[in-house]
């Protein structure tokens, strides 16, 4: 019997950040206007059966969201900080900055976006 599409399943072992990219669940649009940066606590990485995003971080709920999908930009930022195994992030905090970037699904219109700028 497989997991339901909305139920997170914990990932274990080494998580190579080279292998994943995704669409975030917590988005820049969820963040109150005027907020420039904030921290999220990483609980664990999860796989959500049937979801498009392969690499999802379960976080302590913030702004009504408890999941954050790591996209290619944020994966590269983490790699630039010397993190190659995503399991290193469990129990740590990600510092996210609110910015904007073009969304190809919306005719490249600039939309609020979240960028990983630090790990504590």
Q: Give the strand tally.
A: 6
Q: Can you count the helices?
A: 1
What number of structural domains do the residues give?
1
Shape category: globular
Which runs of at least 5 residues are low in confidence (pLDDT < 50)?
Answer: none
Outline of this structure?
This protein is mainly beta and 120 residues long. It is 8% helix and 41% strand. The protein has one domain.
Strand and helix map with partners:
Blueprint: E1 8-10, E2 37-48, E3 56-62, E4 65-69, H1 72-80, E5 93-103, E6 109-119
Antiparallel strand pairs: 1-2, 2-3, 2-5, 3-4, 5-6
For this entry, give a set of tags.
120 residues; mainly beta; six-stranded antiparallel β-sheet
